[in-house]
Amino acid sequence: MNNQETEIQLIQITKKFGNFAAVQNVNLEIHHGEFFSLLGPSGCGKTTTLRMIAGLEEPTEGQICLAGEDVTYKPAHLRNVNTVFQDYALFPHMTVEENIYFPLKMKKVKYSSAQAMIEEALSLVNMTGFGKRYPQQLSGGQRQRIALARSLVNRPRALLLDEPLGALDFKLRIAMQKVLKDIQKNVDITFIYVTHDQTEAITMSDRICVMKDGLIHQIGTPDEIYNSPASTFVASFIGDMNFLEGQVVQKGENSVTIDVDGKPILSTRFEGTFSKGDSVVACIRPEKICLDKVCDSEFQNKFENHFQASIHRIVFRGTDYEITLKFGQSEIRLIESASEFNNKKIGDQLFIGFQKDDVITYLKECKKV
Ligand code: ATP
Fold first, then answer.
1. What average pLDDT score do residues 169-197 get?
2. Which residue from 2, 55, 51 is spatially nearest to 23, judged by alpha carbons?
3. Whose C-alpha lies nearest to ligand 1, atom 25?
4. Domain ranges of the chain
5. pLDDT at residue 270, as a whole number
6. ∠ CA 85-90-96 to the nearest 5 degrees?
7. Range of weakest confidence among 7-16, 59-68, 130-139, 358-367
8. pTM of the predicted model as reported, rounded to 2 decimal places
9. 258-to-107, 117, 279, 285 alpha-carbon distances in Å
């Protein structure tokens, strides 16, 4: 779907409310047909960014372009974008059909000419046959589908979705994520999706923009964001991560050795430049760590980082176990499938192994958690 043609561009966008900058110096390029997510904790500026794209909020500084046109000060109803909100915003006194017809009516399309478009929109969201119902006769998931149909019926260039699944229960949310993704595949429309749910962003997006305190921390594909987080904030916000604090004891051309509680940890991936003695944070995903009873030559050859630690905590999670081990004052978590668990107990002394290429190191001063 994504053909790299720029659909939406934000250039040096800042939005202040009084003296408070909700969004600061944001530069973004969203491609045509892309599923692009704005992800970050509550209050990081996601909705404000989306509202500026929609034309519901004016930036304090900067420029917004839609399909190459400067729309910074263009009113919302003249922009070829629609917004879907979490609370659906369906008109309760109108039937489903009338709700979907509404944006076409605003464009002076006659009802007789709109019927085929309404049917098509209903079919797109798998709601054919529900046209005569009122919103209160629908479930939450069905209402959200109708809200989607209404926002797609006039085929905007871009659809802006502000936590659209936030009001749904967990199972329905997962089902609707698939519905949304399927719909997006079937229409040639750019989706910009606001969420604070990292799993949702990772599973649905072509690219993700991670924000914190009004600033962009990273823009990338889910793979890039997960496997090469640009900061410890991104590393902590996306997926599960171990953060091991220590000091640089040796700095090579392509690697760095960090002392963490007396254990030397080798890392080949680092952000920024380090010198001996620098305080750093070594990050490693729990699923990259292996556990063994013995530290034989095979284990040592496989894992450049290997040392002994004792089991401190075990959490059963259904299909797997989360095991926390302690060495000195430091803790490290890893995941073991239920079949590999083999009755491990708190206090067991075992060997941890992980590869140097799976350790990403950041300067401690960069820690933005
Ligand atoms: P959430 O996930 O909780 O919706 P968000 O990332 O979407 O958060 P925004 O709604 O964009 O965050 O808000 C960013 C910051 O701007 C917040 O600190 C918020 O309190 C502030 N803010 C938003 N709108 C206004 C306003 N109209 N007046 C003053 N401050 C505002």
1. 89
2. 51
3. 17
4. 6-236, 240-366
5. 83
6. 130
7. 358-367
8. 0.89
9. 64, 62, 9, 17
Per-residue pLDDT, averaged over 247-258, amounts to 92
ipTM score above 0.95: yes
What's the length of the chain? 369
Burial of 36 (0-12, 13-18, 19+ CB in 10 A): buried
Strand partners, 251: 256
Round to whole Å and give the CA distance between 49 and 214: 9
Which helix (H) or strand (E) segment is 149 a member of? helix 140-152
The tokens describing 314, both together, are 């075990």
Give the chain's radius of gyration (CA, Å): 25
Domain 6-236 class, CATH top level: alpha beta
CATH of 240-366, one of 2.40.50.100, 2.40.50.140, 1.10.10.10, 1.20.1530.20: 2.40.50.100
Task: Compute CA distances 114 → 56, 96, 98, whole Å.
Answer: 27, 14, 10
Give the closest residue to 130 by CA, choosing from 89, 84, 97, 179.
Answer: 97
Residues with CB under 6 A from ligand 1: 17, 22, 40, 42-48, 196
CA distance 332 to 242: 6
Task: Report d(CA 268, CA 256) in Å as an integer.
Answer: 6
Q: Residues 255-277: pLDDT tens digits? A: 999 999 999 999 999 877 888 99
Cβ burial 285-303 (10 Å sphere, 16+ → b, else e): bbebbbbeeebeeeeeeeb
Mean pLDDT, residues 28-42:
96
Q: Please give the average per-residue pLDDT across 147-156, as a whole number.
A: 92
The residue whose CA has the least distance to atom 5 of ligand 1 is 43
| Contact (Cβ atoms closer than 8 angstroms) between residue 334 and residue 286 | yes
CA 214–ligand 1 middle distance (angstroms): 9
Which of 53, 47, 66 is closest to 8 using CA atoms?
A: 66
Distance from the alpha carbon of residue 69 to the mean position of ligand 1, in angstroms: 27
